[in-house]
Amino acid sequence: MPTYRIAPSILSADFARLGEEVRNVVRDGADMIHFDVMDNHYVPNLTIGPLVLEAIRPHVQVPIDVHLMVRPVDRIIPDFAKAGANIITFHPEASDHVDRSLQLIRDHGCKAGLVFNPATPLHYLDYVMDKIDIILIMSVNPGFGGQSFIPEALKKIAEARQRIDASGREIMLEVDGGIKIDNIAAAAKAGADTFVAGSAIFGKPDYKAVIDAMRTQLAS
Ligand code: DX5
Ligand code: ZN
Asked: Which residues belong to the signal peptide in this entry (predicted)?
């Protein structure tokens, strides 16, 4: 069985108690924290920046996975790295120089990756696979938590899995958007190993019950 990781998205957490929220969700079994950055430009919503990352960083030891939904991307990458990011991903359409942005993330000591919207083709990977540590497949259009999983994402996850296997490298394959207890197994079957879940976890009072149920599904 692959190593599966569950990455709660703090977009659906209680922002007034963010330190406590990340501590609780890690205590309850989260493997990573997914940190959604939106700029009201690349996506029609505005969220959190490096200051908030710096504030939560001392509360958890697990990797923090920064998902940049911003344009442009390069100027803000060093700030997130310095604030304590472990992984930084961005949308290739939002960068004029995808290869340079990936290198910039690695130069700042983080794992680097590209994010693919539902209609974005995977060919952005063609010439940069050696600079990729993680591929993130969006199963909703980015911008908001609580949307429904777009089933066509399963085909793209499977295609990304083929590319990873062909590369012979260890690359994480993450899925983000509408992941719930009842569809996580399908995403795993398609080839995902890392699962972002916002509303499914933070929308329920008992985080451990949800995370345990997701792991049961992954083991089935
Ligand atoms: C959407 C974000 C997601 C979002 C997921 O643009 O990238 O990470 O928080 O939330 P759920 O799991 O509720 O779809
Ligand atoms: Zn995200």
From this structure: none
